[in-house]
Design a protein that fits this description.
mainly alpha
């Protein structure tokens, strides 16, 4: 392990601008740059969206402007905003289909029985997670109703689905018995190994969106299993485009999916600075992503 770096001293906004100019960034309107850096931190804006815009010596590539970096930031913010509603549809559908299936097969409190799950040791930890989720939502009227007015005070599984985070929901599905996972996946028209992988990745992307994170030029740490037709076409699974393809298959009965694709196309046309390859988009990205 090499010598540890020291933290840099803080800079005023004026010093931040001078520093950017000293490493080759073109700042055409300093008053505009001051307003932006007063609203969006240097770390969030400059550090994140300068990736691939600098050479190895730390200097910006020729003709890179402050305004271009802001454009990348604004694209990312708008991309998150149009993507999150599509993820919400998948999440709501999944809550419904798991809750209905599980209640029908095991009863409304069947989730309490470890025999109904693949990993029975994990199930014990899962019950503790459930209790934490319920406590966080203890003031919700429907939670109070089941806790105070029903035998045992347990929530039925279809109500429990509504207090789960998407991450917890994904873990619930992952620990279901394989025949049960197959039955739920069949409702989406996909194989259960794919659905399990996709849900984990989509949950990860949802958290990026919910916490104002970066989708642009980001390598995803939770990667989905892609269909062979996509991997053969050179699509990678560690960029956001691979996740979009998975979402397409989960929303194939959604008449609005192509509208999302059109909105994304308009967004890419608006922000010309965006390099779609950094998000894993191939040249024929729209053809692959939309339903004909």
């Amino acid at each position: 392990m090499g010598e540890l770096k020291r933290h840099q001293p803080p800079m005023t906004i004026n010093e931040q601008i001078e520093n950017l100019k000293s490493i080759g960034l073109i700042v055409e309107d300093e008053e505009y740059a001051k307003r932006i850096l007063n609203d969006i931190s240097y770390f969030r804006l400059i550090k994140a969206y300068s990736l691939n815009l600098k050479s190895r010596n730390g200097l910006y590539n020729e003709k890179i402007t402050f305004e271009q970096i802001v454009e990348l930031y604004l694209f990312n913010a708008n991309f998150r905003q149009i993507l999150l509603p599509e993820i919400e549809k998948i999440e709501v559908n999944l809550r419904c289909r798991i809750g209905n299936y599980f209640a029908g097969k095991y009863g409304v409190t069947g989730y309490l029985e470890k025999e109904n799950f693949a990993n029975q040791e994990y199930h014990e930890l899962f019950l503790k997670d459930i209790e934490e989720e319920i406590q966080r939502n203890a003031k919700a009227p429907f939670v109070r109703n089941f806790r105070e007015n029903y035998e045992g005070g347990n929530l039925p599984v279809y109500a429990l689905m509504e207090v789960f985070s998407f991450g917890t929901l994904s873990k619930f599905y992952k620990n279901m018995l394989n025949p049960d996972k197959k039955a739920v996946a069949a409702k989406f028209g996909v194989g259960y190994t794919y659905l399990e992988s996709w849900l984990e990745s989509i949950s990860y992307v949802r958290n990026i969106c919910a916490h104002y994170g970066r989708l642009y030029n980001t390598k995803l740490s939770k990667t989905p299993m892609l269909y062979k037709e996509y991997t053969k076409a050179g699509i990678v699974n560690n960029r956001i485009y691979g996740v979009l393809l998975c979402m397409k298959h989960l929303l194939k009965e959604d008449m609005h999916w192509n509208l999302f694709v059109d909105t994304l196309e308009a967004l890419l046309e608006k922000y010309e600075t965006v390099d779609i390859a950094t998000m894993g988009f191939p040249k024929n990205w729209k053809e692959l992503l939309e339903y004909s």
